[in-house]
Amino acid sequence: MQQYFPGYPVINRGFGGSSLPDVLRYAKDIITPYHAKQVVIYCGENDIAAADTITAEMVFKNFKSLYDTIRKNQPGVPLIYVSIKPCPLRWAMKDRMITANRLIKKFLLKHSGTRFVNVWDAMLGKDGKPMPDIFIEDRLHMNAKGYAIWQKLLTPYLLK
């Protein structure tokens, strides 16, 4: 993260395969102790991918619990949520992902000190599907070109 956001103090607390229940479980270890100037969250995609029974509403409910946890411990901290991204590997799950993004965005629009950063649209090609050239071979994780898209979208909202 530091290489894509030079000049910004980044404390990367992300961990592979995380889901919102994981982040909630470890919030007291990975968020609260740092008293950050700003919190940036990217989570929810793995939740939906975990099982066909995980609905967008369940993802939203878990996001709201995380939001409430953060607000309880740091009431005024600015919060950015990076939308769930589209990817070729999980394209069949797009409807649940789009709905989860919509629910979270709607919620955040009602709360001050928050920002929803929509990476979904910027990662789609002219055909309306994820651009294949922004992912590594697994068709799930982004390459430098994909992260450059995020960098451009996130940088205007980051605090130094």
3D architecture notes:
- There is one protein chain.
- With 160 residues, this protein is mainly α.
- The protein has a single domain (20-157), classed as SGNH hydrolase (Rossmann fold), CATH 3.40.50.
- The protein has helices spanning 20-30, 45-50, 56-73, 94-109, 144-154, and strands at 39-41, 79-82, 114-117.
- Helix 1 (20-30) runs parallel beside helix 3 and helix 3 (56-73) packs parallel to helix 4.
- The mean pLDDT is 96.
Structure class: mainly alpha
Rg for CA atoms: 15 Å
Share in helix:
25-40%
Provide the residue-averaged pLDDT. Answer: 96
CATH topology: Rossmann fold
So, CATH architecture? 3-Layer(aba) Sandwich
| Total beta-strand segments | 3
CATH class: Alpha Beta
Note the overall shape: globular
The succession of helices and strands, N to C, reads HEHHEHEH
- Amount of beta strand: 5-15%
Unreliable runs: none
The CATH fourth-level homologous superfamily:
SGNH hydrolase
State the major sheet: 3 strands, parallel
Structurally, the number of domains stands at 1
| SS summary, helix count | 5
Which structural traits does this protein have?
7% strand; 39% helix; 5 helices; mainly alpha; 160 residues
Summarize the structure.
The protein is mainly alpha-helical. 39% of the residues lie in helices and 7% in strands.
Topology readout:
Layout: H1 20-30, E1 39-41, H2 45-50, H3 56-73, E2 79-82, H4 94-109, E3 114-117, H5 144-154
Helix pairs in contact: 1-3, 3-4
